[in-house]
Amino acid sequence: MTSRSASMLAAVCGAVLFVAAATHGQGTAQAQPTVRGTQAGTGGRGQGRGGSASITIRAARVLDGRGNTLENAVIEVQGSKITAIDQRTGPVTYDLGDKTLLPGMIDVHVHLNWYFGPSGRYSERDVPAGYAMDAVIDNARKTLMAGFTTVQSVGWAGDKPLREAIAAGVVPGPRLLTSLGQIQPGNQTPDQLRERVRALKSDGADVIKAFASGSIRDGGKMNVTQQQMDAICGEAKAQGLRTLVHAHSPESIIASVKAGCTQVEHGAFADDAAIKAMKDGNVFFDPNIGLVLQNYIENKDKYMGSGNFNEEGFAFMEKAVPTMGPVFNRALKAGLRMPMGTDAVAGAHGQNAREAIARVQNGGQKPMDAIIGATSLAAESMNLGGEIGSLKVGYEADIVALNGDPVKDITKLRDVGFVMKGGRVFKK
Fold first, then answer.
1. Same domain for 144 and 233?
2. Is the pLDDT of residue 174 over 70?
């Protein structure tokens, strides 16, 4: 990160808060939020946007994010919005040949503040503030370049200035929704938990993140009371906020559904009763089957020794990996709504599409449905289904081009050749 960029970041969002949060934050919108704009940036951070000239993009096929395909199509963009989708002939701004256009992808669960330190290990002590800032910004950049134009980052106060820096065009990254923290109920009373929700709302949180069970590395057992979950999710609803709940065990999942929580995360040990409860409660389920645990195991030497990253913890994760595809498949057959989330942490940023690929290859989902899960359904889960997640006139011009057809080969989701977010081209 250049000194000029650092000073710009400070001017936009207050570098003191950003640096402090980046250094200390490792570990882990309102009901109708509004897509935050992105002003013109500097230093090559995206081209286009603004002015009167339109941008036109042609490709062999357009997937609209809702299950429809248009061959040999052109998308027209004016400012930050899509203004036309048709099959016109003639010259265009970008002729992408045999590529496939689809909406910018969305990851509903990431942790941009997780990174490996200067020695290549997670949770290193005394990491220089400049290194921490660069690492977080690089995570955001990698995610955007992988075709993810919107993410939901849950658990970090430093997301607030980062969110504003990205929206202002100072930092290249995906549109960011954030919980600004996470609620571990512990011994807190229901009234204390309600106050915590109100405080997060007041501070600008887009969503509430809460825990109803322990980590999978500790067995994932329920560690809250029903009254605590009722307080968190009830108050969030009263404040117009959604709730994402970390829940692995059947008991914790069912308690979250009873409390009226919006979305269940992980659910590694979900049984038929828990799946039925989620279906009956019409909650979203984000099972994270294709990246997070695999990434931990692939980077075992970098995580080992930090907190519950020990031999027992890794044994839990290694045992869970082969069971995740079948859990997803049972949830799929039950008709659960499953937006795509990865729980991306250090080592995983920019590899987000592995989740959608695993849902097809290991979970039995149809490729088009996996694409919908990473676009329009993910947007719907964040109450942004009328603004992003679809290629449609009037929607934000978040457009990604793939080198191939992901409906025929789902692995093409990782072969990104063009990225536009809000009308600005970041990769071509």
1. yes
2. yes
